[in-house]
Amino acid sequence: MKMKNKLKFFALALVLSFANCTTEDAAVEQSGTTAVSENSTANVTAKVGDCSQVPGWASQNGGTKGGGTATETAVSTYAQLKSAIENTSVKVIKVSGTITVSARISFQNQSGKTIYGVKGAKLVSTNQTKDGSGIIYFKNCKNLIIRNLIFEGPGAYDTDGWDNATLDNCQNVWVDHCEFRDGVDGNFDIKNKSNYVTVSYTKFTYLKAPKAGGSGGSDDHRYSNLIGSSDSATGDRGTFKITFARCWWASGCRERMPRVRFGQVHIINSYFNSTVSNKCISAGLEANIRVDNNVFEGVKNPIDLLSGYTAVTATGNIFTSTSGNTAGKNTAFKPPYSIVTLAASAVKADITAGAGATFSGNTCGSF
Asked: Which residues, 6 or more positions from 224, have their beta carbon under 8 angstroms from its beta carbon?
């Protein structure tokens, strides 16, 4: 009898244990957080305040720490900013106020550096000419953090000019809580073997009307983000491992949100609501893209499948008042990292509240 009673109690304990597991699982599901990769709940990345955590592809290849806890150099003028960027011994740059960039700044051949803004910090270009446009050009750099800055251009004008910012052959870059607006050629482009890049809580928008009549041929060049400059740049194969997490392609964006060649690009928990859009995510030559738990609202062609793409896997997305294609095709890569993932139903509120230069300074983490 004693043995039978023990067995009964054991069986009852098992039933209660399973019931508790079911209740906990349901609570997690309803909280608005789901997992994309199998191990995403085991190794959560990029909590706010934890400087050791980096989300997405920038967490790979040794990680991305920028300038770490090095002594800050404060800048508030163009001359000070240019000097601090060009000085390889300066590892953390703190930007204050509005700085008008009179000539595009070259940020080259450096490693282990952070540039961030205090609340309201803004880098501005007013030049729409082919040679004079653009704010900053990153080339041959590694281990950079760019945080809490507004990059403001003079408006789109197709003169084959420059982007607000460009990554050229850069590795391990984390762009966090920034806003890119009104770039002449593009807002923020990534090219030439750049790799292990994460863009998080960043807003892309056009507030100024496009200028027509440029030599490039497009009368409306509000093309926000280009990844890979040409189909002929086959040396880019195996690179462009990029994560866009909790980003906002907002008013005025017409195309390239982003437009991808060659890369393994993960677009997750982002919000697309530009009513002037012609197409949003464009999969070009050998593009391998995951589109997970995003919200597309009032846009045209959320997923544009161009000739020669490899795969687009689209899961858990919400499409509201959209037109055009919403489906992927073939099976895209599986990310090697884990990342905190919102249910798509929670994305709009989170992004509209948090994307852009919404921090007060160099706050570590994002999620």
From this structure: 180, 183, 186, 187, 188, 204, 206, 249, 253, 254, 255, 256, 257, 258
